[in-house]
Amino acid sequence: MSFRIYTLFLFEYFRSHKLGAFFALAGISLGVGLFISTGANGMKAEKSLTDFAMGYFQGKYKIKISSSLGDQNLPVSLIHDLSKDPSLNWIVKIAPRFQKEVVLNNSIRGVFIGLDFLKESDEFLYKLETQNSGTQNTRDTFSSVFISRSLSQKIGASKVDIRTNSKNFSVTELIVFDTEGGSILMEDIESAMERFETAGNVSFLLIQPDEFRSEQKRILEQKLGPDYRVETVEDIREKSGNALRSFQLNLLVISFISLIIALFMVSNTMSGLYVSREKELGILKTMGLSAGHTFSLFISQALFLGILGSSIGLGLGFLFSKLDFFSPEATSVDLSYLKTYNTVPISTWLLGLGIGIVGSFLSAAVPSFRAGKISPVSILRESSSGTYRTNEFRLLSIGLLLLFVFTCIAFFPFRWKFPIFGLLGIGGIVVGFTLCFPWIFKIFVIFFFKLLERSDRSFVFMKVGLEEMKNQTLRNTLTSATLMLATSLVVCLSILADSYRRSLNDWVEAEFPAEFTIINTANLAAGIQGGVPIHLLNELSQIPEVKSLDGFCVNTRVETDRGNFTIHAYTFSTHDREDSPERLIEAENEILISSNMAYLQNFNVGDSILIETKLGKKEFKVRGIKEHFFSERGTIMMDIKNYEKFFGLNGYNSIKIFLKKDADQRQSEESISKILAQNSFLKLLNVKELRELYTKGVDRVFGILETLKTTAFIIAMLSLISSLFHNLISKKTLWEFSNIWGPTLDNSEKFC
């Protein structure tokens, strides 16, 4: 087949049908762009957790050693002990690191890092020196404080006020340096240790082996004992992935459904293309065009749409990944850290491009194969009659069979890291419903024809559209399937978000019956835990109107033998209702877990879980299961006194204040406010304000779902318009309107 035929048949169509090509390209571009943005943001979130755990400047370091006793509890003398051990001659370099999360300018979250500039890589030091050459010598460089460019742009000032739970100080004359990811302040480790008064201890050690081997971790664990924690880079990556897996899967599934909607639109476009070119196809086949060449003609148009649309989608995906509108939030990831990463992994680019192109090929395979197999006489006969015979009942039977089989697969009681059975079940159910549409169309049309036969001629214009649906059921099936997917996605996400929001409000009323709650607004804005002083509990207890107090603490990075979870520690004694599961706790190693954690991790009452504490690994017993709306992976609940023993406590996230029944609420509020006046960052919230605070947090987390819902709706509308363009207002239908019904119908009826 000559290239001229390809050119005339392929590109001439797009030249003369610009609107149809635009709709197909728009659908593919949006679908691929959404898939790229969610995938990229998921990878960035995982990398942000890994970089934080490894101190950001990983280099060739493969092993991390930290203390089980908490942060800044690793003695520097350990470096000498490891270096002098002859059995550890595979260690090339040991680098100490200091790392602490801080609040900058009372609202921005950052990480203060101390590096041994003499010991760290020469390449990194050279980068710092060359960026500031001509202004400082090496000695000045060692005594300077550096700031990452992303953090510098966010702060926009040369002076930074830094605050932690125990220290407040300011830093001026910061030197900006470039790095991929992280809101970082950095200086020489000795200066950082002196500034934060760590008593000669560091946060962790990074080890560079001559050649990394898995048994090196076991060797170090045996030598160091239970007071130290040894982790490899792969261990940290796995924990980071586990911490985000459920949230990433939610985004992946939703974006994948949006991409399927777009590919349905490609198939719909190719079906419309077949109808609009059927006479030309009949002439070409009469002239000797083979089935293979016919298939190639149609599939090449789909590949053209797929390649061009996917390429545009890559650009849209990169743009979407930079916007807050498309950025996800989770309890374990800070959006401010996520935004500091600019690069998208090459694997994400290739996956998005491949899915768009391969999906376009597969979505056009059926119409292309049909075009290649049909005979010229059948094309011309069907073209003149406008009737395509379809065995709707057989398709219905196949569809119902698929619905039954894949519904069973979707509920198959097997759990794995990736919900393969659930995804297969959803895919099969979608295909099953789609195959049922032709029969549904037929019954729908027959029913309405019965009604129209009993009416006057004022509804005669509807017969044209109904007749089109009756004769061209397959051409309308993909449009209906696209709208079905989009509608179900929008309804599902709406119900999910609204249900979660209502449940959260009910939970706040049930779990937080306190009249007032104290929070630290600066820590809350920066996303850092703590900030409410411990001594405040004693001062508040002196107020006569106060009945009881509940100190509340959150730890989002708790490591267990089943993955990373969030711990909520609070005063169990304040929950004194008869049905409160907190009353079941008797021993210090007994805990409660959230219902979603029990379901996802197959926990039952009486099970044990090993948790990393400052005292080493400790076994805790699950005494009860409770509804708890916080972490998507699950939450462990522990009495605040037990938490302080096992993890230490530098400050509360909040303090709940319960008043006596006859207490004057206004007088109590004034008394509490006088105590809080000593710290401008502490704020007193009533029940309504607390509920609004939680609801706002839920809206931020579900904001990405609202974005996906809107995008899916836009893609579905594009599909509907594309279908109308190809099927309902084609040249043949317009000819029928103008010549047959034109004299009797007005413009509004023709539009309907």
TrEMBL record:
<feature type="transmembrane region" description="Helical">
    <location>
        <begin position="249"/>
        <end position="275"/>
    </location>
</feature>
<keyword id="KW-0812">Transmembrane</keyword>
<keyword id="KW-0472">Membrane</keyword>
<feature type="transmembrane region" description="Helical">
    <location>
        <begin position="420"/>
        <end position="452"/>
    </location>
</feature>
<feature type="domain" description="ABC3 transporter permease C-terminal">
    <location>
        <begin position="253"/>
        <end position="376"/>
    </location>
</feature>
<dbReference type="InterPro" id="IPR025857">
    <property type="entry name" value="MacB_PCD"/>
</dbReference>
<feature type="transmembrane region" description="Helical">
    <location>
        <begin position="346"/>
        <end position="372"/>
    </location>
</feature>
<dbReference type="InterPro" id="IPR038766">
    <property type="entry name" value="Membrane_comp_ABC_pdt"/>
</dbReference>
<keyword id="KW-1133">Transmembrane helix</keyword>
<feature type="transmembrane region" description="Helical">
    <location>
        <begin position="21"/>
        <end position="40"/>
    </location>
</feature>
<dbReference type="Pfam" id="PF12704">
    <property type="entry name" value="MacB_PCD"/>
</dbReference>
<dbReference type="Pfam" id="PF02687">
    <property type="entry name" value="FtsX"/>
</dbReference>
<dbReference type="InterPro" id="IPR003838">
    <property type="entry name" value="ABC3_permease_C"/>
</dbReference>
<feature type="domain" description="MacB-like periplasmic core">
    <location>
        <begin position="478"/>
        <end position="674"/>
    </location>
</feature>
<protein>
    <submittedName>
        <fullName>MacB-like periplasmic core domain protein</fullName>
    </submittedName>
</protein>
<feature type="transmembrane region" description="Helical">
    <location>
        <begin position="295"/>
        <end position="320"/>
    </location>
</feature>
<feature type="transmembrane region" description="Helical">
    <location>
        <begin position="393"/>
        <end position="414"/>
    </location>
</feature>
<dbReference type="GO" id="GO:0005886">
    <property type="term" value="C:plasma membrane"/>
</dbReference>
<keyword id="KW-1003">Cell membrane</keyword>
<feature type="transmembrane region" description="Helical">
    <location>
        <begin position="473"/>
        <end position="496"/>
    </location>
</feature>
